[in-house]
Every structure is written in structure tokens, then in C-alpha cells.
Specification:
By secondary structure, the protein is mainly α. It has one domain: 3 helical TM bundles of succinate and fumarate reductases, CATH 1.20.1300.10. About 75% of the residues lie in helices and about 0% in strands.
């Protein structure tokens, strides 16, 4: 009475294995990662501010952690994440205005975001170290 039903031929959903990683896809991933890292970095900034408001000993302790080479690396990464996320937001603002939507323009804006974030982060740290008298 019951017939064996044949499996329906359904189209397969696109999968990551058939996509080639493009710069705009990578930028989307990096934008999300930098956004998440800004949450963590803001907690570190808040910790530093609370320590400054609490007294000399807590402030010295937190400043000592940030002064350690690993702490400096974390602060450098936080600076880059902040600058990169800012430039990514500006890129999206350009797109929201209806400009820069052709694929070659998307690629150029993506590369400018990467290169600009690296350059601006290095410039910020260079100026900071010059003002501190380290360089």
C-alpha cells in the first residue's frame, strides 16, 4: 500500500566550502572581532579609571600591569581595534550614502581600512612615545 517515496532533489544551500574568501568577507569578520575586543578593552579602561579614582596603590598596580610588555601589547591591540573599527564604521557610512558599492570600490575601501588602521595606530603610538620621551 505504501510506496517508497523517492527523495526530493532539493537545491543545496551555499556553504563555506564553495566560497573563496574575499577581502570584504574578511573585513566583516574583522569588524565583528574588533567590536568584541572593544568591549574587553573598555573594561580594562574602566578598571584603570576606577583604580585612579580609588587611590595611589590601586592605580600603581594597574599602571604596572599596563606597563608590562604584555600589557603594552594589549594596549597596542586595543588601539588598533579602536582605529580599525572606527574606519570600518566610516566605510559603512559611505555605503549608507549609496556610494562605493561597486565591487572594485568595496575592495579599495576595504584595503584602505586595513592600511589606514595600521598606519594610524603606528602614528598614535609614535606620537605617544615621542611625547613620553621614549623615542
Amino acid at each position: 500500500m505504501t510506496e517508497a517515496k523517492q527523495a526530493l532533489e532539493r537545491p543545496l544551500s551555499p556553504h563555506l566550502s564553495i566560497y573563496r574568501l574575499e577581502i570584504n568577507m574578511l573585513m566583516s569578520i574583522i569588524h565583528r572581532i574588533t567590536g568584541l575586543s572593544l568591549y574587553v578593552g573598555t573594561l580594562l579602561l574602566a578598571t584603570w579609571l576606577v583604580a585612579a579614582a580609588t587611590g595611589k596603590e590601586p592605580f600603581d598596580a594597574v599602571s604596572g600591569l599596563f606597563g608590562h610588555p604584555i600589557g603594552k601589547l594589549i594596549l597596542f591591540g586595543y588601539t588598533w581595534a579602536l582605529v580599525h573599527h572606527l574606519l570600518g564604521g566610516l566605510r559603512h557610512l559611505v555605503w549608507d550614502s549609496g556610494r562605493g558599492l561597486q565591487i572594485w570600490q568595496v575592495n579599495v575601501l576595504s584595503w584602505l581600512t586595513i592600511l589606514g588602521s595600521i598606519f594610524l595606530t603606528l602614528a598614535i603610538w609614535t606620537v605617544g612615545l615621542l611625547l613620553k620621551g621614549v623615542l
